[in-house]
Amino acid sequence: MPRLLVTGGAGFIGANFVHYWFANYPDDHLVVLDALTYAGNMANLEPVRDRSGYRFVKGDIGDQQLVEEILLSEKIDTIVNFAAESHVDRSILGPDAFVATNVVGTHNLLKAARKIWLDGAGGRKPHRFHHVSTDEIYGSLGPDDHPFTESTPYAPNSPYSASKASADHLVRAYHHTYGLEVSTSSCSNNYGPYQFPEKLIPLIIINILHGKALPIYGDGLNIRDWLYVDDHCRGIDLILKKGRVGEVYNIGGNNEWTNIDIVRLVCNLLDEALTGDLELAKRFPDAPANKGKKAEELITFVKDRLGHDRRYAIDATKCREELGYVPTESFETGIRKTIAWYLANEKWWQTVMDGSYRDWLEKQYV
Ligand code: NAD
Ligand code: TYD
């Protein structure tokens, strides 16, 4: 029975992974290690708080001694490393935290894994180190370029993607040099429940509900390949179970959208949901639909992001052919589910935005 250490498990994808894992493997043992930065939130893990087989540790992946203690005391055999600074705009404003966590932090995890799993008392132990990376390490595609494959050369353009690319190289090197049993997944843009409202889709949903401007960087024609978060989790599961050690697997949704089209879609879906719904009208009086207006009227083109990558797209053939991976959520249903989740979980986003609920939860449960 696997015993997992999930780093960054209080963040968006990590928390979804914890819920995915317990839904599918209820008897497994799973420890979350998370530093609870601004993006980490105990509320994301509330549904598993009291279940057996689960433990939360507040701590930094850069704390090698703490990681070694967890690996030993919890008899961990699998690390899934989600912990990261993850927002490109923040990396442009302040790259240091990205180098500290994404590069140095991942290296500390690798050192701890090597010490306990390869060189520890009793010799080598069965193990897997899975590193969660991003398609952004491949750089930017032209309109007619083939989507990223696992052999596309690395060409990171932002401090965020450069820090993720550095970590990928260290993971690869620990396999090649020391024989650490690693795997890496590079995934396209995720969306779904628990995503911090600094990222495009939740930001747009919440701004519409408040009647605030919807900032579109540049001309709005940058393209991203969107995947429902649960499908990312399933891809990682397949790689852990069936993937070859030392390999990289691209995970994607085959679902390319320009930013402006995705924002227009979210506008239309929210107009539809709010129109004629008295309860929602009372909760969100500033939403355009309650004033006889269209949410699209809030679209505001703003100064472009520095070094803004034009297009990302994933070729997930390797994952499909080797592991039988196909996304199960269509974009049509996934985006509706996501909007419904944000409408039903106003307390979650109101409080992650002011931070008080997060601080309160941390005092209660950590
Ligand atoms: P997130 O920002 O929502 O969550 C990151 C989590 O890591 C938070 O809980 C935070 O508290 C924790 N963390 C940060 N620094 C830490 C440290 N030093 N030690 C321990 N914990 C720390 O990020 P996310 O969107 O859930 O992304 C998770 C992973 O997936 C990242 O590695 C990211 O690069 C990758 N990824 C994200 C996307 C996406 O669309 N969001 C796509 C592909 C890959
Ligand atoms: P984001 O969700 O930050 O993900 P990433 O930069 O990792 O792809 O942004 C998705 C796209 O949306 C990206 O092209 C930048 C753009 N964007 C805006 O136009 N306005 C916004 O307010 C944000 C946050 C993003």
How are the SSEs placed, and which strands pair?
Layout: E1 3-7, H1 12-24, E2 29-34, E3 54-58, H2 64-73, E4 78-81, H3 88-93, H4 96-118, E5 128-134, H5 159-178, E6 182-187, E7 190-191, H6 200-210, E8 214-217, E9 223-225, E10 227-228, H7 229-242, E11 248-251, E12 256-258, H8 259-274, H9 278-283, E13 299-302, H10 317-323, H11 331-344, H12 346-354, H13 356-365
Helix pairs in contact: 1-7, 2-4, 4-5, 6-8
The chain binds nicotinamide-adenine-dinucleotide and thymidine-5'-diphosphate.
Structural description of this entry:
The strands form 4 sheets. The chain has a 7-stranded parallel sheet, sandwiched between helices. Helix 2 runs parallel beside helix 4, helix 4 packs parallel to helix 5 and helix 6 crosses helix 8. Helix content is 43%, strand content 15%. It is built from 13 helices and 13 strands. Helix 5 links the parallel strand 5 (128-134) and strand 6. The mean pLDDT is 96. It has helices at 12-24, 64-73, 88-93, 96-118, 159-178, 200-210, 229-242, 259-274, 278-283, 317-323, 331-344, 346-354, 356-365; strands spanning 3-7, 29-34, 54-58, 78-81, 128-134, 182-187, 190-191, 214-217, 223-225, 227-228, 248-251, 256-258, 299-302. Thymidine-5'-diphosphate (TYD) is lined by residues 88, 189, 199-200, 203, 215-217, 222, 224, 259, 305.
